[in-house]
Write a structure and sequence with these properties.
The model has no long low-confidence stretch (mean pLDDT about 90). Strands 1-2-3 form a three-stranded antiparallel beta sheet. A hairpin with a 3-residue loop joins strand 1 and strand 2. About 25% of the residues are buried. It starts with a helix and ends with a helix. The chain has about 170 residues and is mostly helical. The chain is elongated. The longest helix is centred in the N-terminal third of the chain and has 32 residues. About 65% of the residues lie in helices and about 10% in strands.
Length: about 170
């Protein structure tokens, strides 16, 4: 990837991270102030906004292990950043870099909650099925990870991985 394009993309990706973190935190502040009084039913028995605090990770695993999850999240975030800079700077890796921006933004959003309050604020409740309540950071993390898996399985080919391994040897 041309150096100028790489840096332009890097700035856009940084703006994505910042926008995601700020948006996530603003929605969480709104939820703590508004939804503490009562949930908002948007579609009866299907979707609502309700305030839930999660002291665990996804789907409530590691409940009440906030310190461990905070340290683990910082370590994962560091690993993701190393991976970002380790990726070849070619055009074909652009989608992966953008997806990593969403992963980083979502991770930071939830790390802020854990570090500041010892729990993550969730507010989106899909009531049609028994699904865990989630937030904007969770959406960014989950969707970007699914797309990454799809790209790794169907978009990137063996040659891409070989070039990647060779460029980092």
């Amino acid at each position: 990837m041309e150096r100028k394009v790489f840096w332009r993309d890097a700035v856009i990706q940084l703006l994505i991270v910042i926008a995601l973190v700020v948006g996530d935190q603003l929605v969480k502040i709104w939820a703590r102030n508004t939804l503490a009084k009562a949930p908002i039913i948007l579609w009866k028995d299907v979707f609502s906004l309700r305030l839930v605090y999660n002291t665990g990770a996804a789907f409530g695993i590691f409940h009440n292990h906030t310190l461990f999850l905070t340290i683990y999240s910082f370590a994962l975030l560091a690993g993701i950043l190393v991976f970002y800079f380790w990726l070849p700077k070619e055009k074909k890796m652009r989608p992966m870099r953008y997806l990593l921006a969403f992963v980083v933004g979502g991770s930071i959003g939830n790390i802020i909650d854990r570090a500041a309050a010892g729990k993550v604020t969730d507010m989106f409740s899909f009531d049609l099925i028994n699904f865990p309540v989630f937030n904007i950071a969770d959406i960014a993390l989950t969707c970007s990870c699914f797309v990454m898996v799809f790209l790794c399985l169907f978009y990137y080919k063996d040659e891409d991985y070989k070039k990647w391994k060779k460029s980092n040897s």
